[in-house]
Write a structure and sequence with these properties.
The protein is α/β, with parallel strands linked by helices. Helices cover 31% and strands 19% of the residues. The chain has an eight-stranded mixed β-sheet with strand order 1-2-4-3-5-10-6-9, with helices on both faces. Strands 7-8 form a two-stranded antiparallel ribbon. The radius of gyration is 19 Å and the shape is globular. The model has no long low-confidence stretch (mean pLDDT 96). It holds the Pfam family AstE_AspA_cat. Keywords: Hydrolase, Metal-binding, Zinc. Its cofactor is Zn(2+). Belongs to the peptidase M14 family.
């Protein structure tokens, strides 16, 4: 069913202009601190890893360094593993799951892979618990040439020198109840389209690349995460968030065509994780652990099957 949901900005059926975007921006409130909760943890890892600043966001009076973590003993003969989190700033376990992986597990891959981890791609949105950046743009639809999102363009520049050596890219996300209550209605209002209600799946799932699927890889990640938290079942239509379930806990998108972060390289093994933090069956600690487990499983499978 298609309905016109009320959203307090704009005129139903008309895309936002500058005035509506400015009104939206004026309503955004800082709820948490990037410096205290994220930057400090990243910099604290500097005794064991290289911490690099690959850009800076400037939104009005607010500025944020864009920080990445790299293997200290980078070896050009080894494959690269790219881990990204916080493309959508409100998806908390994407950020803290990436940091947990580096802190607790990354040392086990020294001498096996080069690690490049960008744990919080959208720090402005992290502080405001939002999906978009300050320009009301979704960075995770903006990983393409001439990107309108500074967050996306900066990550693409960071990755460019190692793009051809990336064997694994795992992009850490969440699907939350607020997707349905706030972010999808806001998207419909911004674009002047009717809101089409959907269902939020209860559990973890993955998004494979429909143009280059790797079903064995996806199932290896699912099997590892299932030891930490539950996997989302298909709905009555055999779908998760409107996409056909192709295997236990797995759907597919054309990653590059949609401008998604997981499509920024030609890595043989690509996936997007989706944790469900609002489930009564999952705690924040479990969500972070599920993300870290997914990264480990992804690397382990790739190392065992380097040629596919």
């Amino acid at each position: 069913m298609t309905v016109q949901a009320f959203y307090p900005i704009g005129i139903p059926g008309q895309p936002w202009g500058d005035a509506e975007r400015a009104e939206w921006l004026s309503r955004q409130v800082r709820h948490r601190s990037f410096d205290a909760e994220v930057r400090g943890k990243i910099e604290g890892l500097g005794s064991r890893f290289d911490v690099v600043q690959y850009g800076e966001l400037n939104y009005g009076a607010d500025s944020y360094p864009l920080l990445a973590i790299k293997s200290r003993d980078w070896n050009g003969e080894l494959p690269t593993v790219l881990v990204t989190g916080g493309v959508h700033g409100y998806e908390t376990s994407g950020v803290h799951g990436a940091l947990e992986f580096v802190d607790l597990h990354a040392h086990g891959y020294a001498g096996k892979v080069n690690l490049l981890v960008a744990p919080c791609i959208s720090p402005w949105a992290y502080e405001r618990i939002h999906r978009w950046n300050a320009s009301a743009i979704d960075p995770n639809r903006s990983f393409r040439d001439d990107s309108p999102a500074h967050e996306s363009a900066a990550l693409m520049q960071l990755v460019a020198p190692v793009r051809d050596s990336v064997l694994v890219h795992i992009d850490l996300h969440e699907t939350t109840d607020s997707d349905e209550s706030e972010f999808r209605p806001a998207l419909a209002a911004r674009d002047g389209k009717p809101f089409e209600p959907g269902e939020i799946p209860d559990g973890f799932y993955l998004v494979d690349d429909s143009e280059h699927p790797q079903p064995g890889f996806q199932q290896a990640v699912i099997a590892a995460v299932e030891k930490v938290t539950h996997i989302a079942p298909a709905d009555d239509k055999g779908e998760i968030i409107g996409s056909t379930v192709v295997a236990h806990g797995v759907i597919e998108y054309p990653l590059r065509k949609l401008g998604l972060c997981a499509g920024v390289t030609d890595a043989r093994y690509k996936t997007t994780t989706e944790v469900y933090p609002d489930s009564p069956r999952a705690t924040p600690a479990q969500c972070n652990a599920a993300q870290a487990a997914a990264v480990c499983a992804a690397i382990d499978y790739a190392l065992a099957h380097p040629q596919g």
